[in-house]
Predict the structure.
Amino acid sequence: MSFKNFTELAESRYSVRSFSDKKVPKEDIEKIIHAGMIAPTGCNNQPQRIIVVNSEEGLAKIKECTRCHFDAPLVFIISYNKDECWKRPYDGKLSGDIDASIVTTQMMLQAYELGIGSCWVMHYRPEVLKEKFSLPDNLESTALLVMGYPSEKANPAPAHEKSKPEADIVKWE
């Protein structure tokens, strides 16, 4: 896909919940992973961990963790290593969720630029995911990024183009 600018890309991207059976080529998967690897993280500690799930066995495990898999042919499990996160000294808050969210966003936007649809899924059972994929205790899962080529039925959700008024979101001082 070709976009004039970032705003055009961001405004046209939507969460895809209906995928075709077409497999995502490995070279595109690698581009998407690279986008996540170069994402900014707290103090550049890079605590993100990305599991690529595209085998039949792996996708069957995903289906045991969530109903929101949408039969996607590719899923990224995005997590972070709690031992590697930057920690805010004033209250001990870890940067992991924020770091993993930036990683996920960059991967999602890179996929869209390649013509690949995605949906950020947080509705999954973390304890089942941890068991099925043998995640160690120091890894905290943040998102499932389900991905593939949109089917002919794929359309933006009705609320896709709705935004709250700026005055409800932004405060100027």
About this structure: The first strand starts at residue 48 and ends at 53. The chain is about 35% helix and 15% strand.
